[in-house]
Amino acid sequence: MKPADPSDPATPETPHTPHAPHADSLYPELDAVALGAFAAALESGDAGGLPPARAAEVAAVRSVAVFSRGRVTGAGGVLLDAALWRRKGSGPRPVVVMPAPWTNLGWVAYAVRAGAFAARGYDVLAYTPRGFGASAGRADAAGPLDVADGSRALDHLLERAAGPVTRIGFLGVSYGAGIGLLVAAHDPRVDAVGAFSGWGDLGEVLVENATRRVGAVRALLTAAGRARLSPGTERALEDVLAGRDLDGALRWAEERSPFGHVKEFNRRRLPVFLSHAWHETLLPANQTLKLFDELTGPKRLVLSVGDHAGPGAGGLLGLPDRVWTDAHRWFDHHLLGRAAGGADEGQIAAEVMWSGTVEHRPTRHALTRRTRRLHLTGGGQLADRPEAGWTAGLLCGVDTPTAVADEVVRSGYAEMAGRPKVYPAGDIDRAVAAVWVGAPAEDTLRLRGIPRLRVTYRAANPGSSFVAHLMDLAPDDSARLVTHAPFSDLRSAPDSLVGADIELQATAYDVPRGHRVLLVMVGRDALYADANLPRASLAFTSPEATPSYLDLPLG
After folding, report:
1. 243: left (phi over 0), alpha (psi -120 to 50) or beta
2. What are 345-397's pLDDT values in tens digits?
3. Is 32-365 a domain of CATH 3.40.50.1820?
4. C-alpha distances in Å from residue 350, one per residue of 284, 292, 336, 384, 507
5. CB-CB contact of 506 with 303 (8 Å)
6. C-alpha span between 412 and 306 (Å, rounded)
7. What does the alpha-carbon distance between residue 298 and residue 275 come to, in Å, rounded to a whole number?
8. pLDDT digits (tens, 9 = 90+) for 305-320
9. pLDDT tens, 211-221?
10. From edge to edge, which strands make up the β-sheet containing 299-304?
11. pLDDT tens per residue across span 240-279
12. For a FRET experiment, which of 28, 176, 273, 533 has its CA 20 to 30 Å from that of 104?
């Protein structure tokens, strides 16, 4: 590869010194020092400072591949920081391109995992997208320039392969996942793609049920840190925060959404592997499921406990990891032509929250076997029969204990260790929140799929919003979050009835015997923009013609 040019302003002063991890990183488990040391050992061959397992991996990779650092010339001549693993010998080999996540750590995040691909028979190129780390240019947020850069990175890899290239894959985590999917949609040379914690519809990441997802947008801007965002990217994200020109921001997002390229994926029957977390606070799961459902070629989806990039985080550091094992099998099958392995267990691998159990299903919709409808009643119960004529109010502009997450991304990492947040249900003020509770479960209630909520409410003022939290209420009055969704109405006249028909985020959760399903509606949650006037109120009801209900998907 082309050596780093010290005169290039994008070249670090000390090329082999890993970037220090940021406290505001979207990937709190990534150890920048350990990954940087691994990359340095790959280059120098001196693995004396590494743990024995990592040192053995360095030796194994160097025995079959040549590692080098350098630059890829992207669109417009922008130089991208990159690393290359080239298999020794002149035999045929598949290749994998890995765009880095939304972090100034750049391609170093893949130092261990790219080596594992090289040891399995692949040439690998990992690179840092423009605007991040030691790459020049400004971040295009998976726009046309990033897509062009991905194809240029592939060109670079193909030109340097020591033997014939048989098949081509793209694989990325988070930002790299979105870029990889879009490059695969635009570049017909790509034969398979893998996306960990990426997005299908970027518009739904920014705005969900007409509600601005300001917590996620703030996290993206903060985590960009020292990155250099393009003016269009910065403007779109700032517009979402400010609540201005949302149509423009959504047009910007549409160009960056793999969902808009489903026809191209399906025309080529492109194999697509997706991994996501149930409780994603940054890129919610349903928008990825929407993409998955529309794909008609070979596809696989792994849904796991945790938050953004949590599933697979250990694998990036070289630890045993179910998600990465599954991804390796997927690429080995579609690029190396090996037996399907885990890929023959069905399209879906769904981890049940807190239990660690993994359920395999032939299709996503096979997760749900039937639906149980519970009606909201005036007595605060979730009942089997509808009841009309009641009113239940909530007070807006007041914080409650039922916030979705104390902190975007980080709150979900405790869940991966089996320590979900416990909510004191007794502290929920019924004068502030609207609350409904079901009867104790006679047997384990296996929630599998997307719950749906239909409610009617009256808002005295123009502009209203609420967040619905579906919870598991234990006999000791403690509760755990199962799933949630926001809703906003920005168009109705004051004092008119508003109908909200929404999907909550998908879930796989077992409500134990004796526990109750708890539905809590609040007017404010820090993850979302608040369209309500301070101290306004919402009055929920259930008209006879359109009763309010909660549909639970049961497995």
Report:
1. left
2. 679 999 998 888 999 999 999 999 999 999 999 999 999 999 999 999 999 99
3. yes
4. 16, 14, 26, 29, 9
5. yes
6. 5
7. 15
8. 999 999 999 999 999 9
9. 999 999 999 99
10. 65-73, 79-87, 123-127, 93-99, 165-173, 192-196, 272-277, 299-304, 348-351, 358-361
11. 999 999 999 999 999 999 999 999 999 999 999 999 999 9
12. 273
Q: What value does the mean pLDDT of the chain take? A: 92
Q: Is the pLDDT of residue 11 over 60?
A: no
DSSP H helix total and E strand total for the chain: 14, 26
How far, in whole angstroms, is CA 207 from its chain's centroid? 15
Give CATH 3.40.50.1820 domain extents, the chain.
32-365
The 3-state secondary structure of 239-295 reads HHHHCCCHHHHHHHHHCCCHHHHHHHHHHHCCCEEEEEECCCCCCCHHHHHHHHHHC
Residue range 62-75, pLDDT digits in tens: 999 999 999 999 99
Of residues 219, 266, 191, 148, the one with CA closest to residue 411: 219
Would you tell me how many other CB atoms lie within 10 Å of the CB of residue 174? 26
pLDDT at 104: 94
pLDDT at 24: 55
Torsion, Cα of 28, 213, 521, 433 (10° steps): 80
Cα Rg, the chain, nearest whole Å:
24
Which distant-in-sequence residues (6+ apart) come within 8 Å of 47 by Cβ? 41, 54, 55, 58, 59
pLDDT tens readout for residues 482-494: 999 999 999 999 9
The tokens describing 115, both together, are 């080596």
Burial class, 431, CB count within 10 angstroms (exposed 0-12 / middle 13-18 / buried 19+): exposed
pLDDT score, position 480 = 96
Q: To 10 degrees, the CA torsion angle through 319, 16, 308, 355?
A: 10
| Rounded distance between C-alpha atoms, residue 16 and residue 72, angstroms | 18
Torsion angle of alpha carbons 357, 363, 367, 370, nearest 10°?
-160
Q: Say which CATH class 368-554 falls into.
A: mainly beta
Tokens of 48: 């004396």
Element (H or E) spanning 471, and its range? strand 464-473
Q: How many Cα atoms are found within 13 Å in the side-chain-facing hemisphere of 156?
A: 29
Longest dimension (CA), the chain: 78
Nearest to 308 by CA among 336, 278, 265: 278
pLDDT tens digits, one per residue of 468-525 = 999 999 999 999 999 999 999 999 999 999 999 999 999 999 999 999 999 999 999 9
Q: Residue for token digits 């869940």?
A: 415
Cα separation, 438 vs 446, whole angstroms: 15
* Stretch(es) of the chain classified as CATH 2.60.120.260: 368-554
Question: 481-494 burial, b if ≥16 CB within 10 A, otherwise e?
Answer: bbbbbbbbbeeeee
